[in-house]
Structure prediction request, 693 residues.
Amino acid sequence: MSVLTLLIATLSLLTPCAMAQGEQPGTESGTDTSTATPSMSVPAYSVRPASPDPDGFAPLGDLDDESQRVFLEFTPFGAGIKSIQLPDEFETVKFEKHITLQAQQVAGEKHAVPFGATWVIINGQSVGIGGSAIAPYWTELAPGVFELFIDDAEGNPVLRIERRFELKPENRHGFILSETLENLSKQPLRAVLNTTAMIDMPKADSTYGGDRRRVRYGFMLPPEQQGTSLRVRVDNELLARTKLLGKRTTLASGAKVYESPRQVWPDDKILPGSQRLSWIGFTDRYFAVVLHPVFDPQTVSSADAKLLDGIARIDRYVLDPTQDTLNSVQLLGLQGEQVELEPGASNTRVLGVYAGMRNKPIMNAEPVIASLNMPDMVVSNLGGICAPCTFQWLAHILMDVLRTFHMIVGDWGISIIMLVLLVKACLHPVARWSQIRLQKFTVQMQALAPKQKAIREKYKDDSKRQQAEMAKLWKEEGINPAGALGCLPMFLQMPVWVALYATLFFATELRHEPAFYGVFQQINGWGFMSDLAAPDGAIPLPASWHFSFPLWGTVSSINLLPMLMGVLMWAHQKYLTPPSSATLTPEQESQQKMMKVMMVFMFPVMMYAAPSGLSLYFITNSTVGIFENKWIRHHMKKHGMLEIENIKAEKKKKGPGFMQRMMQAAEAQKQIREKGPAQINPAAKEFNRRPKK
Prediction:
């Protein structure tokens, strides 16, 4: 068999909705051969063909009614979903194209269909129930309601399958899918219904910040640990979609492909702690599509009611295993639990799907979603090396404060400025202490520069002696090396600024919101800062001029805010950075100048395609920082805090600092190790403890 034939055979396993009758996907994993392996003694079953519908299936919802939350289109492939669109959300601020969260994907003759029927296993025999537009299997009974019949070898009806899609009541986000198996034969049946679930979220147009698509899930602990608690735990892994994709393997031809299918649940290596799965979903920066159980939150009394019902296993399929990581398309396949059907009996599996904003207030407003603790999936965390220091309790506080400011002023741009001012005010004592300490140390080092220069010249050929003499000089002059750590408290503020950055980056509230009450849009419809979640777009570029880089994002306009950031950094470097060249070697001085140039140019370049809300945050922070530093330096000069005599007098009055005392203790320990303990003078009163006669 050729490599091409093997590849085609592999592809045929990836998209069950496109397959005709044949091998059941996933049976090679060997997890449940009792339901997956066809029995030789059972009669042959076949799907009863349906009549083609020239008009196609009717949709659910009204895309032009923004009061509705979801609009569903259907496809003949497995009576699945052709697209899930949001009537009240759009791709851009032009409000022309609605957001599409899920869409049928095609690669050649293969189709990846969200929430479509794929196979049914009857008494051990697998029957493909996908169908196609040319040879349909499913008949539409009403908008969102479809049925299919399976007959035995004699043409007698055996099984009826009904799929019913209903929009959630009260204009909530998502829909409810009910799937019914009805035994039409005169004999008991064992049946397993397999379907697909979510497909990958669409790839973002801009790659700024990397691919933010993730896999999130909620789970229950084992019964002995869960006890009577009804609380659903939410994963804290922040799994990137690449976790489900896994690693690619290399074929004999040299082609790299993804394993497909791949079992993802139950599998503790892929979904840690999710052996009792409550819900699972795909998310991106702003939206989520989540599969969840359906129940009444007011009457639920058992943790089992919050588990996904009727699902035995979840597999991951890839539409085209040869695609690269960013452009690959994966979907989840659901293997149902086996049900026993007596003649005339039926069984219905009900699943819910949340499709909407990844937003805490919106999710908390829906009782089932809130009861599943699903709002806890909403985190403002960039992941990677920044994940440990991005404290979510802090990010949630910052987001609540931002919302409060917006309630007061009614503009998100002004709210960002107010939030930065508040954070700056709270951190001012730390910044002031740090600046004063660093400035004093700089003055001390400048006063010491001539003596240091003399030592370097005298011992230029003896680096060890030079270091020893420098340390001796510092000790004699009473200079605390810890003064060089004056910038350390500033680094301790980093978690606050990282949390603030992540909060603004993931805030759904900023999406498609203009800054400053849309004042710039009143100037002949100027698009400058019309969307705080996108680059400022001061001067749009022709489509043929657009370009992008990984992690940098797509450049589609000339942006002014990053340039303004560069000017502010230049001003900060020129006017407010304390001179320190007197204490540096020529090489160190050259390196420092290079770092200044890199900061002025590199940071604006890195932020060029950043959302304008983040740029506004950095500009406000830098501007306030310049005035703050200027005020601190003015305060120090006014009170003579930078006079070397005053610094020495203050040092003498306070005595040795903590670091100096530590150095003295270390020196004493070194002396003990080298020379032994000092001899005790017997005449000393403190050691003469003999009682008087």
